[in-house]
Amino acid sequence: MANHVYSSIEIKFKTEEDTSKFLEWIGFETDSEKWPENSTYLTRMEACSNCFFDSLYDGTEDTREWWIDNVGAKWCYLNDIDASNDTVYLNIVSAWDFPEGLFFKLTDLLREHYAGAKVEGTFDDEGYCFVGACASNQQHRDIEYFHPDDEFFEDPTYRDEDDCWTDAFYEEMSNKKDELLDDVLSFTEQID
Q1: Which residue, of 6, 11, 21, 53, is most buried by count of CB atoms within 10 Å of its CB?
Q2: Which domain holds residue 154?
């Protein structure tokens, strides 16, 4: 089990107003006088991450037990935030696993306060013990994983002469994430 799991989450809103409201809710204000001229992006991300978790959860605790029980990972933080008119992109780093508890808590909030919001994302463990995808809309949500077995890792096309992963390995893992994303999107877009 590797320590870092990298998740890329895309939230598509129905309106630009919803996008702005969500960005303000997590403390991400691009044109704000709130940030001193010499503040770094890292400082802003830490503040947004704290705001995000404190706003989403009542009574956060900075203990391993709390993070695992509530977020689904040993620890977790927002690593990067970006936005367009109707979409917010969150890059999340967590320990040990994809933060399923966070995914469910966030999608519950979106369902309640942002009609029509949709979420899709992919994630991977730094050691490629797993890759996966997630998606949610107002009615359905799903998370799927691919856990390579020993036979998968022993494929000789995936290692070079220095025993490093080859481009073929990374391409295959990317393809697996894309397949899983197609699967979860297909499930969430089903008609009741």
Answers
A1: 11
A2: 4-188
